[in-house]
Write the C-alpha cells for this entry.
Amino acid sequence: MASISIVIPVYQVENFLKRCVDSVLNQTFEDFDVILVDDGSKDRSGIICNKYAEEDSRISVIHQENKGLSGARNAGIEWSLSNSNSSWITFIDSDDWVHPRYLESLYNGVVNDQTEVSAGIAFWTKGKDFEAASDFGSKKWTVKDYFLNPSVNAIVAWAKLFKKDVFKTIRYPEGKIHEDEFTVYKILFLYQSISVINSPIYAYYQNENGIMQKKWTPARLNALEAQEEQFHFFLNMHDNELARNVYIIYLYNNSKHQKNIRECMVLTDSEKKKMLHELRKKQRELLFQYHKYHWVPYRSCEENKQVYTDAFSSIRVGRSAWHSVKHVLEKSKNIKLLTESVKRSRNKYKLVARYKEAIADCSVILLQTPLHGNIGDHAIAKAEADMLQKLKLPCVDFPWTEGIEKQCARATSKKTLVLQHGGGNLGQLWPYEEKRFRNTLLSYKNNRIIVFPQTVYFDLNTEEGMRCFKESKAIYESHPDLTIFLRENYSFQFMRKHMPAVHVQLVPDMVMLLNFQEKSLKRNGALICLRSDKEQIISEEERSDVVQIVRQVFGQVKITDMIIDGMIFPGDRSKTVEDKLIEFASSEIVITDRLHGMIFAAITETPCIVLNSLSHKVRGCYEWLQDLNYILLCSTISELSLLIEKLKMVTPKYNYEKIEAAMKPLFIALQNGVDG
C-alpha cells in the first residue's frame, strides 16, 4: 500500500524525463507509486515511460491522446482514485526534478504540523542542481498568509502534497493554460493551515520550449479568467484583503495583456480591436462590481434613503497599470468611484460621518449582512428585514464596518440596539466572519447586542479549534449585554455548556419565517441542489449516482445551487431570493444536502430528500420541520429510490404558525431591546 501517489504528466520531454523520474526513484521516502501520463508525445517519451514501468513495479503508465496538462493530470488523478490506496497525492512536471528528501519533507510536514496540505520551496534553474541544505523541517502558516506571500508559489500545483480525497470533487480545467490558477486556490482555502518546508526541494527547470517561455498568444488570457474567478471566490468569502490582492493583480495583468495584444504580429487590426474591446469591457464589469462591493448602499427599513461607505481599507495599483485603470474609470458613466480613491487610502473620518448620517433617525442597526453570492444568507437577511418591519422597528442595514468599528461604535448612541446578521458562520469554520463578529463585540461594548439565529462550531479536539474557542469565549463572555439566538440544539447545548456566561436562546432558522405565496405553480421534473464548498460531504461518484437514480424516475433533472457567481446587492436581494423560491416551487421534488435547500423546499411545499444529514446544522434545523411528511432525511444513497416512492404519496402542507410561535422569544427580545 503506497502512502503517496505521484502524478507526472509527460509530453515531448525525452531529453528531460530521465532526470525527473530518477529524482523520484532516488527518494529517501519510498512508500509511493508513480503515474506517468504520456499525453500523446510524438518523441520517445512514451517508450521511456514504458521502460521505467517494466523496471519498477511502483510505476504505472497511461498513454492517451493529447489533452494538455490539465487532461494529463486529471487522468493521473482518476487512475490513483481507482487503483491506488494512497492517502496523499503530489504533482511533478516532467521537465523538473525534486530533491531526494522531497517526499519525506512534505509528508513529515503534514504529520508534524497536523495539516491537510504541505508545500515546498522551489528554485528556478537552467540546469544547476540543489545546493547543500540542512533544514528540511517545516513551519505552520495560515493559508491566507501563505497565499498573500509574494515569495512563495501559492497557486501552482507542483511542490505540494495534497490529501487525495479532495480530488474526488475537484479537477483541473481541460482546454486551458494557467490551469493551476483555476484550481489550487480552491483546494488551499478548504483548510485553515498549511505546512511550508524551510529549504528548496523542487527544481523548476526554465525550459525554453515550455508553454510559459513561448511568445504571447491569446490563450494567455486564460490567466485573467482565472483571476476573475479568484476575485469572486474571495468576495464570497467576505475577505476583502484577499479580494483586493487579486483585484490589483488582475488590473496589472489586464494592462499587460492589452499591451501584448497591440504588439502581437499574428493578429489583424480588426482582431486586435475586438480583443481590446472585450478586455476593457471585462475590466469595466469587474471594476463596477468592485465599486458596488466597497461603496455599498444601506437602506433604512422605513425610508428609501441611501448612504455609501467604503468597505476596503485601501486600493493601490502599480504605476504601469494606473493609466489603464484611469481610462476605464473615466469611460464608465455608471461608476461614481473617485479616481483618487484608487490611489490613496480611504478617509475614515468621512466614512464615520456617513455612518452617523445613516443612523441619525434609527434606534436599530443591523450589521454584517451579506453581499456575496450565497442566496441562503440573503434569504436570512430578507427574513430579518421582514421581521423588523413587522415590529415597526426602523433599522439601518450595514454590511460593512471593517476597519472603522471603534469609530462607528463611539458615534452610536448607547440606546441603539445592535443586531448581528444570522447564519452559520460563528466559530472556527469561517474565521473571517468570526473575526468580524469579535470586532463588533469589542467595539460595541456599551450597546445591547442581539445575534439573529446562528450555528456555532468549534472543534475542541484539535489544537487550532481549542485556540480559536478560547479566544472567542473570552470576547463573547466579556460583553455585558449579549444575547445569541441559536437555530439548532447542538449549538444551543454547546454554548450552554462551554460559554455559560453568554445568554443564549433556541429558535428556528430565520428563513423558515419567509411567507411564500406562489405555491400553485406548475411542477415539472426534479431539482438537485448539492454543496461544492468546504462543508461538502457527498463525493463526485455519489453525485453521479443521485442524478442517475432521480433521472430514472422523473426524466427531467435540473442541477442548481444556492450560490451564484458574483455578488448580490441589497436592492436585488428580494428578487434573487424570490426567483430561487420559484425555482424550487416549480419542481416535483428536491434532492439537496444544503440547509437552505431543505428550508426552501419546506416553505414552498415541495417534497424534499435531504442527503447525508450528518451535519448537526442540517439535522438540528430539521428538528423544526420533522412533522412535515414531505421533508425526509436520507443517510445513504441506497435509500434514495425508496424515499422517492414514499414522497409520491404525500400532500405537502407547511406549518407556518408553528414556526412563528417558536420565534416568539426573538420577537420579544427585539421589542424589549428597543424599549429597554
